[in-house]
Automatic annotation (TrEMBL), chains A, B:
Pfam families: LacI, Peripla_BP_3. Keywords: DNA-binding, Transcription, Transcription regulation. GO terms for molecular function: DNA-binding transcription factor activity; transcription cis-regulatory region binding. SUPFAM superfamilies: lambda repressor-like DNA-binding domains, Periplasmic binding protein-like I. Residues 11-65 form the HTH lacI-type domain. It comes from the Bacteria. This is Transcriptional regulator.
Amino acid sequence: MTLEQKQSKRLTMAQIAKEAGVSITTVSKVLNQLPGVGAQTRARIQAMIEQHDYVQNHAARHLRKGQSGLIDLVIMRLEGGYDLGIMHGVQEALEESGHRLVVFATHEDEAVERRWLRRIQDQSTDGVLLLLPYERIGIAEMLMAQNIPVVAIGDRNEPTTNYPTIGSTIWLGGYTATEYLISLGHRRIGIIAGPLHLTTTRARLAGYREALERAGIPVDPALICEGNYFLGDGIKQANALLDLEDPPTAIFAGNDAQAAGVYQVLYQRQVRIPDEMSVVGFDDVMYTAQMPPPLTTIHQPLAEMGKMAANMLLRLIGGQTLESNRVELSTSLVIRDSCAPPRTGPLLNR
Amino acid sequence: MTLEQKQSKRLTMAQIAKEAGVSITTVSKVLNQLPGVGAQTRARIQAMIEQHDYVQNHAARHLRKGQSGLIDLVIMRLEGGYDLGIMHGVQEALEESGHRLVVFATHEDEAVERRWLRRIQDQSTDGVLLLLPYERIGIAEMLMAQNIPVVAIGDRNEPTTNYPTIGSTIWLGGYTATEYLISLGHRRIGIIAGPLHLTTTRARLAGYREALERAGIPVDPALICEGNYFLGDGIKQANALLDLEDPPTAIFAGNDAQAAGVYQVLYQRQVRIPDEMSVVGFDDVMYTAQMPPPLTTIHQPLAEMGKMAANMLLRLIGGQTLESNRVELSTSLVIRDSCAPPRTGPLLNR
DNA sequence: CTGAAAGCGCTTACAG
DNA sequence: CTGAAAGCGCTTACAG
């Protein structure tokens, strides 16, 4: 080791102890705010610590205490919107606890997932937050088998899980959005769903159906489109809906990304929102308020969900038990400018 | 410790060694693929490792080798677009190296930054990627003082730094965008800049000026707006430009978020893009291709920048030296559907 | 109130 | 080719 490197090396507890003329044990007690140190000694050591700007070595602490101070967040892909909303809340919670957040995107690639899982298993995480609608290699189970705490955010494909999950009242969101459109006078309401094998998709759809049925409006299968939750799906399905013999007067998109796709199609076809077509989204991600025109959508409390999930995980890590394995925060309708009563007369195909 | 916990505990190298009837040293050599182990012994130990799905303890390794396997990425806020583009590239590079990515958003809060810095100083990071246009508390310097490798991404406010930075040819982007609009016949081109104290803003502006001057078009200060790089700034400045006595026929936005704001204003005022107004953005973030109409913009190779920054950092961590302290990747014009020749006759104020 | 000592699970000279 | 031993920098019973 060269001299230069030696000089730049951070101090150890032993060095602090030596300088203060006390034992390492005593320094450790001061650092960890443990009792059993005289007031004067404590003050002297404290001063020394501050003077040198000493920080405990993380690795040694980790090795002894078995805590890495790290939380892993697993997401499908870095795409903004929904995931970022959740991350905001997670970050906020971790800021208080002092944990750092490791972010990992699976890109739905099994090999990548397995490699990450291996890297995680060396006890270098305190807990994992799963932000995946579904998984193929059973990440949650593998993690639990290793006694690594897990909390899943958003709806998962399994109706019940033996690990905690936090979601929102999706069904109610689907119901509320549809009911709102009905209240404006709409009778033909198109819905763009996600993949039907996801429970979260089915919940939206069930809410939609319930609202129609309560209003005595027959459900027209032609108005129900299956897609994925991407913008491109909104484009594709909006086109399909508009090309119908008897097109809808309102479109309820499965999420805000789809709604953005719907906007694009309406723009291209020169169909005015909301005069000629009403649109409702789902999620209420950051940009919805700024879409032209501002999108009426179902608000999911993303930040709160993230925060609560992180706090649940933290409690699990602390060895506490959770009151409930499943928490649902409430969705709500945010009325902005994308909906209006249907215009009289059929919409012309353009 | 209860029996249950005992059972779930992960194996140690010592246990593997005992089972295999060899020393810990030998197991370690096999695990780290070091020479000095007989082929048979190696095979036997290898089998044992696989059988037990043994993974080295991260904390112990970290303590001995002084490597955490962690890279920290510091960003201002989680907002998507630009930052996510960079993150994609970073993740890709780290996937190969095996490092995990810690993400931290400063929210431009000094207290938060200082707390993070402290947490970082305990040797629990291998290196830091800075994705901040500027910083108030001198993060880069503090990190360097602690011998923690740093690489900054995107342009920084300092013209020169004593740590590596990676950016793109912003000036050229400003020039190219303006030149393109001129080539379409535009003479009055509005530009929405970012904060003028940022070098990155001034580079765009200098490119804009250069293109105008080369074309013999006088620079009209009224057409130059200062804003911030958010969507709201695009809205505000687009309104200002449209309210001018002699409004521009094209608007060059400082980034794509601003361009989205411009779109919104044009939509509200029922000014058609590109027939009545041309718009150019900057960055080429994920959603630009999907804006209605698809936005013509200056492409920054965000993923490549992130990847290269990560690789530079990795090299620094490995003790290698870098060829250059400053790398600039090239920007390019991506022509989509938001520009057209100016319509004849003045644009009516609406 | 204070401190000597064991030990967390590895890696790495070094000796055989 | 193989292994005993020191040590990375802490925390934590335990003894004084």
